[in-house]
Amino acid sequence: MTMSAREAIFKQLNQMDPPDLKPRPPEIPQIDLPDDIDGRIETFMTELTAKAGVAHRVENEEAARKLLTEIAAAEQINTILIAGDDTTSSLNLKEWGEKEGVSVLEASAYEDKNDYRKDGFEAADAGITGVDFAFSESGTLAIRHNSKNARLISLAPPIHIAIFPAERLYRYYEEVIPQVYAEQEGIPSQMTFITGPSMTADIAATPTIGMHGPIKLFAIVVG
Amino acid sequence: MEIKTEQFVEIGKREMNDPYAQTFLKILPEVLGVMREVGMASYTDPKGASTYGASIRREAVARMPELLEQLESSLIANGTRVIWARDAEEANEAILKIARDNNIKYVTKGKSMVTEEMNTNEMLIKNGIDVYESDLGELIIQLLKRPPFHIVGPAINVPVEEIRDIFLEKGIMTEPTLDPTELGRAARIFLREKFQHLEMGITGVNMAVANTGTIINVENEGNIRFTKSSPRIQVSVMSLEKVVPNMKDALYILRLLCRNCTGQKLGSYITFDTGPKKEGEIDGPEELIVVIVDNGRSKQLLNPELREAFHCIRCGACLNRCPVYAKVGGYAYGWAYSGPIGQVLNPLLLGLDRTQDLYRASTDCGRCKEVCPSGVNHPRIFRYYRQQDVEGNKELRSVKRPWSERQSFKAWQWAVQSRKNWDRSIRMMRPLLNKGISSPGLRRWVKPLNSWMKSRNLQTMPAKTFHERWKDLEKEQSQ
User: What contacts B37, CB < 8 A, 6 or more positions away?
Assistant: First the structure.
C-alpha cells in the first residue's frame, strides 16, 4: 500500500534528532504604560489616532448615543447594521434610530446569509459593534465573534463604529488573550484585532486609508 | 509562476539598467528600514526582543514533529479538516477537489507566499476556476503576470501608469486615473462584489497555534478577513514551519512581525480562527480546511545546518537592509522569495543547481542577520550552500564547480601548505602577475578569476618580496 502524505511527512520528520532545548533567554519587560484608567484611555486614544482611527471618550451611554447622532449626521449615515452584543444591546439603538431617522438593521435578525450579506455590503453605511477588549499599547480593539457579534458588521460597511466600556481597556494583550485561549470551550470561532481602518501602501508605496475593509473607524470609550 | 532563478545575473543586470527601478530601490528599502527601526524602538530592549523571538522560533522548529501532531489533533477537535500534502501538486489537487466538489466558480485569495510557491492560481485557472488575488499588490502582479518584487509589497515598484493601463484593460475600472488612492478604490469596488458572493476563500497562514488549533493571519487591507468571513468554505494553506507552541508565543511573535514588517505596532487586522463558525453564527465558514504542505521541507529539516531557514516569519526586514537587493530588486531572485531570505529558501526548495548565482550574490556584510527577528544567519547558510555545492550534496542537488576552478584551488592548496612551496610560487608568480596586470593576459590565463577581475585591479607588485629585501638590507648593513 502506498504511504499517505501524512505518513510520509512524519516518517521524515520523526528522523529529526530529539530537540536540544536550550532554556529561553529572559523575556524583556513590556514598555511602561500608564495603568490608571485615564492614562489607559489617553494612551489608547493616542495610539489609535496614530493609526488613522478616530477615538472618542464619553461619560455614559446617553452621551454615546448623542455622539452617534453627531457622527451619523457628519458622515451621512442613513442605514446601520448593528451587532447584538451586550454593549450595543444596552444602547437601545433601534429606539435611537427611530428618533434620529436612521434605519437600523440587526445582524442577528437575519435568517438568510445572502440577505445579510447583501445588506452588509450594499445597504449599510456603517456597522456598530461592541468589543470584548481593547489594548492601549497599540490602540487595538479585540472582538470575539459569535452569534451576537458577527464578522462582517465590523468589516463590510464603509464605516465601523466600535463602542466599549472603559473597564475593557487593558494595557497589553497578554493580560487577557492567553486566558481566552486557556479553555477550549471559551475559544471563539474567530477573534479579530482591529487597529485602525483598513489601509494599504501597495501602489507606489503611497499610504492610503481605506482599502477593502472600513474606510473609517470610530472607537467610543464609555466611562 | 515561471521559475527564473537561473537568470539571476541577466535579470539583475536588466534591473540595474532600468532607471525607474533604480530610483525606486534607492528610496524604498531605506524608508522601510527606518520604519522598522521606529517600530522596534517601542520595545524596552529591541535586541533582546529579537533574541527572545528567535528562541521561540528555534524551539518551534526543533519540536516540529511533536507540535505538528498536536496542531493536527487540536484542529480536528475544533472541527477543522486537515489535509496533508507532500508537495505542491498534492496540495493543489486537494484544493481543486474541494472547489469541484462544491461547485465553486471562483475563489478570492489572501496574500500567501506558500501558494505562490505552489503555483496554485495557475492550476485553478487552468481547471476553470477563476482566482482573484485580493491583496492590492498581489492583484496587480497577478494581472501583470509578474513575480513579487518585495515579500511585503509585491507590486510596490510598478509605475502607476502601468497599473492604470492594466486596470483599464482588465475592466477593473473604466475611467483612467493615476492617483494611487483612486486606483486602490477601483480595486476595492471591483473586489467587493466578489467578496459579497464568495463561496470559497483561500488564504495563507502566518502562524498556527499547536495547543489550541488556531490559525492566525496578519494584514492591513481587510481582504483576508473578507476571504475568511464571507464564504461557505475557507481553505487555509500553511507550510510545516508555521506552527508555534502556544498562544503566548504567537502573541509575542505578532509584536515582532508587525514591527519588523512595516514598523507598525500591529497591522490593521489580525484574525485568529479556531474551527469553522459555530451554531447560530450568520457568517464565517461552515467548513474550515487547513492544508499543511511539506514541499521539500521535511527532507531539509533533517539537516541541522539548514534548520534556521525555517525560523523565518516572512517579515521582509532582511530585504530592506541588503545591499544586493537594493541594487537588483526582487525580480532577479526569480521566484516567490526574494532578498536574503530568497537566497536561503530558493536554493533549499529548488536545489543548488537551479540557484547557482543566488547564494553567491552576497557581500557577506551580515546586515540581514543583524535585523532578523527570528535568528536566521543568512550569510552562514550562503557559505554552507557554496561549500556543499563544491563538495557535493545530493539532497541539495549540488553541481560540481568547473574543472579549471577546482584545479586552481588545488594549486592554491599546494602553495599555502608549506613555507617552501609558498616562497617558490611567489617567486614564480610575481613576474607573471605583473605581466598579466599590464596586459589582459592574466584573466584569460586563469579563467576562474575572469569575472572577479572584471571589476578589480591588482596592484603591481614590487620585484622583490619583503623577505628578499630584508635579506638584502642585512647584507648591506653587514658590509
Answer: B263
What band does A1 get if pLDDT is binned at 50, 70 and 90? low
Give me the DSSP letters along B242-287.
GEES-HHHHHHHHHHHHHHHHS-SS-SEEEEE-SSPPTT-SSS-SE
Contact B52 A25 (CB under 8 A): yes
The helix (H) or strand (E) run that includes residue A141 is: strand A140-145
Nearest to B302 among A12, A25, A214 (CB): A12
Extract the residue ranges of chain B whose pLDDT is less than 50. none
- CA neighbours closer than 13 Å in the CB half-sphere of residue A13: 21
DSSP-H helix ranges across chain A = 5-13, 37-50, 61-74, 86-90, 93-100, 113-118, 177-180
This prediction has a pTM of 0.92
Torsion of CA B6, B12, B13, B14, to 10 degrees: 100
Locate B58 and state its grid cell.
Answer: 528555534
Q: Where are the domains of chain B?
A: 1-41+310-401, 44-295, 416-478
pLDDT digits 0-9 by tens, A135-153: 999 999 999 999 999 999 9
pLDDT for residue B242: 98
On chain A, the residues whose CB falls within 8 A of the CB of B280 are 146-147
Q: If one looks up domain B44-295 in CATH, what number appears?
A: 3.40.50.10420
Q: What is the DSSP letter of B158?
A: S
Let me know: does B231 contact B285? Beta carbons within 8 Å. yes
A13-16: list long-range contacts, CB under 8 Å, 24+ apart: A13/B64, A13/B65, A13/B68, A13/B240, A13/B298, A13/B301, A14/B65, A15/B302, A16/B62, A16/B64, A16/B65, A16/B301, A16/B302
Measured CA to CA, the distance from residue B52 to residue B50 in angstroms comes to: 5
**Whole-number Cα distances in Å, B439 to A146, B385, B460, B465:** 79, 35, 12, 22
Residue B66 CB-half CA count within 13 A:
11
Contacts with A19 from chain B: Cβ below 8 Å: 59, 62-63, 66
Q: In this predicted model, what pLDDT tens digit does every residue of B143-180 receive, in sequence order?
A: 999 988 998 889 999 999 999 999 999 999 999 999 99
DSSP helix/strand/coil, A105 = strand
B271·A150 Cβ contact <8 A = no
